[in-house]
Amino acid sequence: RPAIVWFRDDLRIADHPALHAALELGQPIVAVYVLDEQSSGVRPLGGAARWWLHQSLRSLAASIEALGARLTLRRGAAGPIIASIAQETHASAVFWNRRYGLAERTLDTAIKSDLRASGVDARSFAGSLLFEPWTIQTGQGGSYSVFTPFWRACTAGAPPRAPHPEPRSISGWEGVLDADSFSSDDLDTWGLEPSSPDWAGGLRAAWAPGEASAHALLDAFLAESLPRYGSDRDQPAQNATSRLSPHLRWGEISPYQVWSATQEAQRGLTGPALASAARFLTEVGWREFAYHVLFNAPDLATRNLRSAFDAFPWPPLDREALTAWQQGRTGFALVDAGMRELWRTGSMHNRVRMVTASFLIKNMLVDWRVGERWFWDTLVDADAASNPFGWQWVAGSGADAAPYFRIFNPDLQAAKFDPHQQYIRENIPEFGTDAYPAPLVDLGETRRAALAAYERVKNPS
Ligand code: FAD
C-alpha cells in the first residue's frame, strides 16, 4: 500500500519532512499537488504567483521523475480529491507539511480527521517555519505583538533542527490512477501562465523558479554578500540581499536549510561581517514573526490589527492617481522606480517596498488594503503573512508597526539609499528628460492632510 505525500507550499525534495517521513515507511510514494481554487476562504493566487507556480511545479515534477516517481497534478477542491486518491490507491498514509492560514488550517484539519476516520494514518509536519506559531508564547501564555521579544523567545530555546538530506531515490507507486492520463505537460491547460498578452518576459529574465536555483542563489549570497549584508542591505542598487523570498514563499528551499547554511558560512567571520550574518537571520525571523501574527490574526489582509485605525477617514479612491502609482508615473523617482521594478520583475527591494507603500498610504491617502491587493497580484513572493504584515507595518495599523506619523519623504529616501540614482536610472529610462511626469502630489500638503486624518485615529468621534 502506498503513502501519499501532498505537496502544497513546499515544492522541493530536500528537507521535506512529510516526504522524508513517508520514505521512512518504506512504501511506494504517490506524490500529489492539488490546485485548489474551490475550497472556501482560500485566497486566489495573484497573476505573478500563478506564473511562478507553473514553473515551480514543472521543476518539482522533473526532480521527482529523476528520482523514480511521478508528480500527480489535480485541480479542484482538495478535500474530495485527496480522499479519492487515498481510496483509489488504498493508501495507508497521507503526509503533508503544515500551512498557517485559517482557511487552509480548517481544510487540513477536516481532511485529517476524515482520513483518520477511514483508517488512514494522516499526519502533518513542520516544514515551512522554524518555530511553529503556537509554540512561541509570552510569559502569560499569549502571542507576541512586538518583534524583539518574539525573536528573543524563538532563539532562546533549542536551535532549529538540521535539514533532512535529499533522498537518493523515490520508489513510485506502480498503479494507474483513474485520471492519470494527466502529465506535467498538461500543466499548460491550467492557464497559470499569461498568454495574450504575455506579460511575463521580465519575470522570466529576472527569475529561475525551482529548488536548484534557490540553492544556487543561497550559495552565491553566502559567498559574496553575507559579510556586507548589514551595511548594504538597504541600498537597492547594491544587490546585497539574498533574493530568496519567492523561493521561500513556495518552499523550494526551507528556512532550516537557510539557517543551517548561514550558520556554516558565518564560521570564521568576525566583527561587522559576523553581525551581518546575525542581521540576515533576524530578517528570516521577521518572516517567522509575520506568520506568528497571521496565525493569531487570520484576517490580517483585511482588518486593521489596531482597531483604532478603523476610524481612519480614507477619502474616496482616485482611480487615476492609483493607476499612476501602479504604473510608476507619480513623478517621485524612487517610488516610480520601485513600482516599475515590481511590474517588470515581479519583485521590489524591501526599502523601496516601504517607500512606495508609505507614499500610497500617506501621500495619496489610499487605504493600505488597496496597495496590499496590488502587491498580492504582482509580486512573485506574494505571501499571505509577509505582504499584509508589511502593509500594516507601514500603515501603522499593524504589529510592532512604524508609527503613522513617521512619513517617509521619497526624495530624501532616494538621496539616502540611492545616492547615485543608479537604481532609479535602471528602472526609469526617461528619468531626467521632459518625458518624465511632474509630481502627482505636493509632499508638504499631503503630509499635513495625512497627519490631520490621523487625528481621527487618535481621537475617534
Ligand atoms: P533578504 O533581505 O535576503 O531576507 C531574507 C529573507 O528573510 C527574505 O527572503 C524573506 O523571506 C525574509 N524577510 C526579509 N525581510 C522581511 C520582512 N520585512 N518581512 C518578512 N520577511 C522578511 N516579503 C515576502 O516574502 N512576501 C511578500 O509578499 C512581502 N510583501 C511586503 C510588503 C511590504 C509593504 C513590505 C514593506 C515588505 C514586504 N515583504 C514581503 C518583506 C520584504 O520586503 C521581502 O521579504 C524582501 O524584500 C525579500 O528580498 P530578499 O529575499 O532579498 O530578502
Keyword list:
5 strands, 19 helices, 48% helix, Rossmann fold, lyase, 461 residues, mainly alpha, 3 domains, Deoxyribodipyrimidine photo-lyase, Serine Threonine Protein Phosphatase 5, Tetratricopeptide repeat
Task: Give a written overview of the molecule.
- Its cofactor is FAD.
- β2, α2 and β3 form a beta-alpha-beta unit.
- A five-stranded parallel sheet has the order 3-2-1-4-5, with helices on both faces.
- It starts with a strand and ends with a helix.
- It has 461 residues and is mostly helical.
- It folds into three domains: 127 residues, 3-Layer(aba) Sandwich (Rossmann fold), CATH 3.40.50.620; 120 residues, Serine Threonine Protein Phosphatase 5, Tetratricopeptide repeat, CATH 1.25.40; 152 residues, DNA Cyclobutane Dipyrimidine Photolyase, subunit A, domain 3, CATH 1.10.579.
- 48% of the residues lie in helices and 6% in strands.
- The chain is built from 19 helices and five strands.
- Bound molecules: flavin-adenine dinucleotide.
The CATH topology of the largest domain, please?
Answer: DNA Cyclobutane Dipyrimidine Photolyase, subunit A, domain 3
Contiguous low-pLDDT stretches (5 residues minimum) are none
Which ligands appear in the coordinates?
A: flavin-adenine dinucleotide
Structural class: mainly alpha
GO molecular function: deoxyribodipyrimidine photo-lyase activity; DNA binding; FAD binding
Protein name: Deoxyribodipyrimidine photo-lyase
Family: Belongs to the DNA photolyase family.
Cofactor: FAD
